User: Fold this.
Amino acid sequence: MDSAYWIVAGLLASFYLYAGTLKVIRDRDQLRPMMAWVYRVPLPVVRTLGTLEVLGAAGLVLPPLTGIAPFLAGVAAIGFVLLQAGAIAVHLTGGDRRIALNLGLTVAAAVAVWLSTGL
Assistant:
């Protein structure tokens, strides 16, 4: 189970580190081709989401890696499940039906929650 966690957590952390960093450093026009919803949400909210994604990525990896409060990995994964639930709602209320990536990330984060209980 340990290696399964690291595979899932590593993939999730890589994705969220990349996506979160983009949300923090790029402006709306640069984000628009990848994230059509950015014009419906205030820019400070986009920046906050990006910051939370970067912190969550660190939360998936650092606690189990250092052995300090490894339960925080499960908390970070739960945070990503909740984040994706909100993302799906934003997509659907904006008329965007492309939520396959969000569903996949939700499932991966839920698997990370389950696998983190064995750490």
In short: The chain has one domain: 2-116. The chain has a mean pLDDT of 95.
